[in-house]
Amino acid sequence: MTNHYCDLKNADVILIMGSNAAEHHPIAFKWILRAKEKGATIIHVDPRYTRTSARCDFHVPLRSGTDIAFLGGMINYILEKDKYFKDYVLNYTNASFIIGEDYSFNDGLFSGYDAQKRKYDKATWVLEKDGSGLPKRDMTLSNPRSVFQMLKNHYSRYTLDKVSSITGVSKENLLKVYEIYSATGVPDKAGTECYALGWTHHTVGSQNIRTMAIIQLLLGNMGIAGGGINALRGEPNVQGSTDHCILYGNLPGYLKMPSASLESLDHYLEKYTPVSKDPQSANYYSNYPKFFVSFLKSLWDDKATKENGFGYNWMPKMDDGKHYSTMHMVDAMYEGKVKGYFCVAADTAVSTPNSNKVRKAMENLDWLVGENIFNNETYEFWRGPGVDPKKIKTECFLLPASATMEKEGSQSNSGRWVQWKYKAADAPGDGIPVGEIEIKIMAAVKKLYEKEGGPNAEAITNLKWDYLDSKGHMDVLKVSHQINGRFTEDTVIEDKAKGTKTEFKKGQLVPTFGNLQADGKTACGNWIMSGSYTADGINKMQSRGKEDPTGLGLFPNWSFAWPVNRRIIYNRASCDVNGKPYNPKRKLLEWKGDKWVGDVPDGPWPPMADKEKGKYPFIMKQDGVASLFGPGMVDGPFPEHYEPLESPLTKNPMSSQLINPAIEIFKGEMDKVASASEKFPYVCTTYSCTEHWCTGALTRWQAWLLEMQPELYVEISEQLAKEKGIQNGARVKVSSVRGEAPCVAMVTKRFKPFTVEGKTVHQVGMPFNYGWLFPEDGSGGDSTNMLTPTAGCANTFCPEYKAFMVNVEKA
Ligand SMILES: Nc1nc2c(c(=O)[nH]1)N[C@H]1C(S)=C(S)[C@@H](COP(=O)(O)OP(=O)(O)OC[C@H]3O[C@@H](n4cnc5c(=O)[nH]c(N)nc54)[C@H](O)[C@@H]3O)O[C@H]1N2
Ligand SMILES: Nc1nc2c(c(=O)[nH]1)N[C@H]1C(S)=C(S)[C@@H](COP(=O)(O)OP(=O)(O)OC[C@H]3O[C@@H](n4cnc5c(=O)[nH]c(N)nc54)[C@H](O)[C@@H]3O)O[C@H]1N2
Ligand SMILES: [Mo]
């Protein structure tokens, strides 16, 4: 989240699109309801009517997978009707920048496309620079090559007729949402967006979010109280797990995982350290070497020296151009390339797309290790439906883990608040925290390498690995100190601007990431967490102060929010170029002539009107401004509508490109894809229900939850039920080109047929909370992922669980 839960109460309009917040994020939803009580308008855009829709002002149904078309239409509306916030757009975004002559967009393809590789070369997606290396700008926004004009041109194609025909949303509904939402493009109104899986589970997932980012920038809704783009995160502490690098391309704090061609530390740092010639751009990532070198020091301590590039060559490297997502991991298992699998606190056999393939892939493993509080379908795959245990060679282990409330540590909510929690009870039996399991396994591996050597042995034998306490248990404080960072030698830090010198002793904790060093004087496991402790060792994650000096619900003394306890990121953009709040009634920050007052500002520098010392507001961006034109994505600098991998259409109404041209197509024998046909005529989406948790591996043990939601079902509209002669409660077979899911039909008013390109398109929906292992009599059904394709977002490989084609027949 750019903002945080409590801040949702400050919004005038809340667009919930791609989320079922009332059922899956009840705490966030509490704040949404507070906004509503104060008069805010709450809009829900979702293919299906849910408990969230019921509490909103109104619900707008749209066909799954068409959000970019819907939002592209909104961009067009905002620009056509002059609803954008001119001062903000001009000063704080790259609207005035000039796009290079060689960039083009033609019939669904951006320049630089290689059809063979299904990849773009982004060399032409650039902004022009003048002779001194500064971006060329046209402050009148009239240059036809300006980002503003190119944006306008790109989205002029998203007319009401087109958008309505693609999305299945009526023109009245489109206009209603566009009008209400774009009314927040004025200084004293704030609009926010809440999304979750309805946006991420698509082959265009990242671009769904970017389209909204463009809208928020046009309306001046970024960096303000009640604004922003707010991802309501999923699993408990999933925010913490991404902060600490659960994703394959990241190191802690979103530093980049090195790839093979970056052969030396210098090479690597040069690639990832942005340079700006503009003195007004803070370009904060120019500090990247400090964060990265400190990270290397946290791994190898005094073994990491300047001479050996701080151990850079010990780092594992990704092969260039290769990806390592869950789907790729399964693919490699299927091909017999991956031999062992640690499945920690997950139920891959149920949760990962194309379950038939996943389960087949596991048969190729030599060993599988689970670390869990319960058994599940993954650990028991060797005796699953249709599997002959005698033919399976895989050795399976299930290690007993303690549950979250049986251990102490930090936990991060979606709003980046890192809160300390305490152990409430001892784990039963032999259960210990998964962290302790990993520490002990790695310690044993280290011993083995010390004795026997092996490939890249120094990476392991040199590891700093002292995270157990005197009783042999995981020492969470040691771990969290290591994450915060410490000085590795006595160090004097000079602040030239303030004219101060501060002395730190070796071993002392680093007070903020501003103190991290690129010369090995600091070690820090995760730079964004620097400052979670004070230099004197006070744990700020334990803070529970309820003061709220701004009245905006920032609660600066409650827990620690990364970065540096900033509650709303990009907050300098809430003020005009002189540092005066755009909206004095919701004053997030104000420049008082010598300092900022309010939230922790995005850097101490004066506002940008001070041409000498002032900085632009988006300090993490190379140019200091936010990107309407965003060359960071692999599938285009402006989001474009493409159909899902499986779609009811044979032609994309926007262009000749039916699907996202930059997604990877998995070509294994079990990766079948259906084109639009009579065989699989219905759009299917999947989701969770309130009564279960994800795969249900946690909740299907509970008799009372099973009583409420006993088995797999498919929600179908009354119209489709009538067409197919299916009664409510009848047994049906849902099938895709990849598999079948027998279940019960739930005939409902929550789904309504769509009119798409002049034809009736039915959409159905299914929860994904079931598996064969329990309830033990098999009455729950099996995984919905028997149906889903191995396909994912071009940028993240988040799977396309939310739109694919099925058939529904009476069983
Ligand atoms: N009780 C309970 N709470 C949970 C969970 C749980 O299993 N049970 N799971 C947790 C986890 S891990 C997560 S990630 C979150 C998930 O939270 P949510 O994202 O809210 O969960 P979903 O139900 O997967 O999907 C949200 C909505 O997206 C809609 N949708 C489907 N396709 C599209 C589309 O193309 N466009 C749009 N705009 N909407 C679409 C669906 O109809 C659904 O209502 O919830 C967390 N909270
Ligand atoms: N079709 C479809 N598939 C989906 C989704 C969808 O919307 N549609 N959603 C996707 C999403 S967003 C997610 S997050 C994944 C979830 O997929 P998984 O992570 O595979 O599923 P969970 O059910 O959350 O699995 C949790 C496991 O962790 C164990 N567990 C619970 N608490 C603890 C604990 O404290 N310690 C330990 N060690 N173990 C514990 C549980 O017993 C369970 O076995 O599914 C994805 N799959
Ligand atoms: Mo999730």
TrEMBL record:
Its cofactor is W-bis(molybdopterin guanine dinucleotide); [4Fe-4S] cluster. Its main location: periplasm. Keywords: 4Fe-4S, Calcium, Iron, Iron-sulfur, Metal-binding, Oxidoreductase, Periplasm, Selenocysteine, Signal, Tungsten. SUPFAM superfamilies: ADC-like, Formate dehydrogenase/DMSO reductase, domains 1-3. It is found in: Periplasm. GO terms for molecular function: 4 iron, 4 sulfur cluster binding; electron transfer activity; formate dehydrogenase (cytochrome) activity; formate dehydrogenase (cytochrome-c-553) activity; formate dehydrogenase (NAD+) activity; molybdenum ion binding; molybdopterin cofactor binding. GO terms for cellular component: periplasmic space. Residues 2-370 form the Molybdopterin oxidoreductase domain. Transmembrane segments: none annotated. Its EC number is 1.2.2.1. Residues 684-803 form the Molybdopterin dinucleotide-binding domain. PROSITE patterns: MOLYBDOPTERIN_PROK_3. Belongs to the prokaryotic molybdopterin-containing oxidoreductase family. This is Formate dehydrogenase major subunit.
